[in-house]
Amino acid sequence: MDERDILMGDGQGANGHRKPVQERSRKTYNLLLDTAGALLEEIGIERISAHVICQRAQVTAPAFYRYFDDKYAIIEALAERLITRQNEALKGWIAYYCDAGYHVIVSHVIDLLRERDTIASGQPGAAHIMRALRAVPRLSHIRLASHNHVTDLLAEMYQPYLPDIPEDTIRTRTRVAVEIAYSLDEMLSEESIDRDRVLQEADYIFRCMYYHPDYAEYLAKSGGEKQHRAPGA
């Protein structure tokens, strides 16, 4: 299953927007996305419309509706773009640190938080996109699918370091951490705030979660190295 399949979940999104195949069509598609993102930044989700997007992009209405059913469909596509970029960064981070040891992983969580913030900051309209994923019912499946996908990737990385901890316990705690991380993205996108200070505070919170008392007891014995679950455990 690829990234698009994960984000689409039950297929609702496939009915809302259609990605082009030809290079010329992709240019128009990306132009519409870029224009919609810029307009979200300028006027917000309430005032944006297919007409406004077409007018700014100098694209005809039929060209817009070839790819998007309505303004929510293009916001859905923008959300996919943002989430895919963040998830690719996560996969790169996991690939780099997954075998480095538990304590090393924990010490570099802040790098992942910074990378997520950099990606969100670089996408116009990110704050409005993230807000829409929570506020618009037809878009909620994208948010939930992404959050659960990220949770699964991270829990799978942690499990070999904590083989005596029940998998559902690791997943539940990871799911909570993921929800905090996405809330952090929204906070940093919506407020003028000392980003480095916020990220440092968030790093402390995540460290506390990574060293939950029952984790800490086990890690003290293992030294934070990968372990193998006993047969039948």
- Spatial shape: elongated
Structural class: mainly alpha
| Number of DSSP strand runs | 0
Discrete helix count: 13
Pick out its properties:
233 residues; mainly alpha
Task: Tell me what the structure shows.
The chain is an all-alpha fold. It has a domain at 3-11 and 79-222. Helix content is 76%, strand content 0%. It contains 13 helices and no strands. It has helices at 3-8, 12-16, 23-47, 50-57, 61-67, 71-97, 102-107, 109-121, 126-135, 140-158, 167-190, 195-210, 213-222. Helix 3 (23-47) packs across helix 9 and helix 11 (167-190) runs antiparallel to helix 12 (195-210). Mean pLDDT is 89; it is low at 9-14.
Give a topology summary.
Elements: H1 3-8, H2 12-16, H3 23-47, H4 50-57, H5 61-67, H6 71-97, H7 102-107, H8 109-121, H9 126-135, H10 140-158, H11 167-190, H12 195-210, H13 213-222
Helix pairs in contact: 3-4, 3-6, 3-9, 6-8, 6-9, 6-10, 8-11, 8-12, 9-10, 9-11, 10-11, 11-12
Q: In summary, what is this structure?
A:
The protein is mainly α.
